[in-house]
């Protein structure tokens, strides 16, 4: 196991607290954990590609980094309107 | 071990430590606004890891792509933090920016 794989493993374990915060916290508190998990996952893919000398892994990271940004922006936008509390997209109670 | 490998190792350790610090901060902070600060920090950790790959592989295909990922993560960090904070604020206070504009018009 080389140093890149060790670093990927350590950061993989660092994903667990992010998952716990996502599950335990309310929606606004979980959003930063979700965004941080995206950054961690991109870094892990870069480390794995270097550790195994496999180029396809870094292609995954190149795709995953902008997609996690778009996903997080979509979650943030949807979170404005309190959908999970009211059930209505405009924020008014049903 | 050449100096390039030593530099790459140091950069990987520094980048990983920054990301672990960001995760630690996320767990310690209780408020969503406080937690948002650590999203940008993790992006710089990813950039350090990407620079480590460039030190090891030079500007090859894998090095260029790693650098691209690092730059995307660093640039997207503040954008993400700003948009998330704005969304959380609008969730709490409604459309506060429009209300502020109306108040400004009334004041004039």
Protein architecture, described:
- The complex is a heterodimer of chains A (94) and B (108).
- In chain A, 82% of the residues lie in helices and 0% in strands.
- Chain A is mainly α.
- Chain A has one domain.
- The longest helix of chain A is centred in the middle third of the chain and has 26 residues.
- Chain B is mainly α and 108 residues long.
- Chain B has a single domain, classed as Helix Hairpins (Orthogonal Bundle), CATH 1.10.287.
- Chain B is elongated and about 70 Å long.
- Chain B starts with a helix and ends with a helix.
- Chains A and B meet through helix 1, helix 2 and helix 3 of A and helix 1, helix 2 and helix 3 of B.
Write the layout of secondary structure elements.
The complex is a heterodimer of chains A (94) and B (108).
Chain A: H1 3-24, H2 27-52, H3 55-79, H4 83-86
Chain B: H1 3-28, H2 32-57, H3 61-93, H4 96-107
Number of domains of chain A: 1
Give start-end ranges of low-pLDDT stretches of chain B: none
**What letter string, H or E per element, gives the SSE order of chain A?**
HHHH
Over all CA atoms, what is the radius of gyration of chain A?
Answer: 17 Å
The largest sheet of chain A, given as strand count, sense and whether it forms a barrel, is: none
């Amino acid at each position: 196991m080389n140093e890149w794989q060790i670093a990927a493993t350590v950061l993989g374990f660092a994903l667990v607290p992010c998952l716990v915060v996502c599950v335990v916290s309310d929606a606004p508190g979980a959003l930063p954990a979700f965004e941080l998990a995206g950054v961690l996952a991109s870094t892990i893919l870069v480390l794995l590609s270097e550790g195994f000398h496999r180029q396809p892994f870094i292609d995954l990271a190149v795709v995953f980094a902008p997609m996690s940004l778009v996903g997080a922006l979509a979650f943030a936008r949807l979170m404005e309107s309190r959908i999970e509390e009211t059930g209505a997209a405009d924020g008014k109670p049903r | 071990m050449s100096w390039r490998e030593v530099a790459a190792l140091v950069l990987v350790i520094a980048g990983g430590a920054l990301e672990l610090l960001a995760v630690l901060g996320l767990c310690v902070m209780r408020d969503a606004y406080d937690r948002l600060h650590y999203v940008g920090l993790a992006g710089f950790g990813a950039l350090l890891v990407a620079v480590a790959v460039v030190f090891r592989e030079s500007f090859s295909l894998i090095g260029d792509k790693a650098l691209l990922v690092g730059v995307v993560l660093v640039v997207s960090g503040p954008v993400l933090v700003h948009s998330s904070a704005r969304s959380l604020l609008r969730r709490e206070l409604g459309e506060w920016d429009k209300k502020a504009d109306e108040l400004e018009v009334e004041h004039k």
